[in-house]
Amino acid sequence: MTSFWTGTRIRLRGIEPDDWTALMRFAVDEERLGDAVRPPRSAEGHRAWAKEQAAAEPEGDCFRLAIEALDTGEMVGAVSANQADPQAGRFEYGVTVGADHRRKGYAAEAVVMLLRFMFAERRYHKCEARVFAHNQGSLALHHRLGFVEEGRLRDHVFLAGRHHDLVLLGILADEFARLHPPTEPPLDT
């Protein structure tokens, strides 16, 4: 039996201090997707942030994990659970994959693993995602995974000299379970 956190193409693992160079590349890649244009962070700033992430304990059910390709051992992205509200039973998540690793199934596999954990192990009822309307690749990924568009915040973000819409998506635990059944049989009792 393999680890819960190991799939067919990837494994999810904690952030390590040496991941800083990959995280720095992802920051540049996200800027190109229209996430946000921020002043550049120094290499030392990325090193310090990666070291801090590596030492951080999860805050409740909020955490960030590295996405590592099984065939190369390279960090190809990151996935996180955010804004977890156990009382309401909902959380948000985020995923990023480096530009040179996109369209290889890494993001989809990482998201399915994360959602399986949050729904089946942590008992959450709903996952929410926010995607910029101009990010067609991310919108297509979410629709393939079973997310439903729940709303659109018009002209919500300002980027590259103009306003853009933000699409709100969600998936419920039972919808996810129908589309992505467990890959291993339940433990015998």
Automatic annotation (TrEMBL):
PROSITE patterns noted in UniProt: GNAT
Keywords of the record: Transferase
GO molecular function: protein N-terminal-serine acetyltransferase activity; protein-N-terminal-alanine acetyltransferase activity
InterPro entries, A to Z: Acyl_CoA_acyltransferase (IPR016181), GNAT_dom (IPR000182), Ribosomal_N-acetyltransferase (IPR051908)
Domain N-acetyltransferase per the UniProt entry, residue ranges: 10-174
SUPFAM superfamilies: Acyl-CoA N-acyltransferases (Nat)
GO cellular component: cytoplasm
Protein name: GNAT family N-acetyltransferase
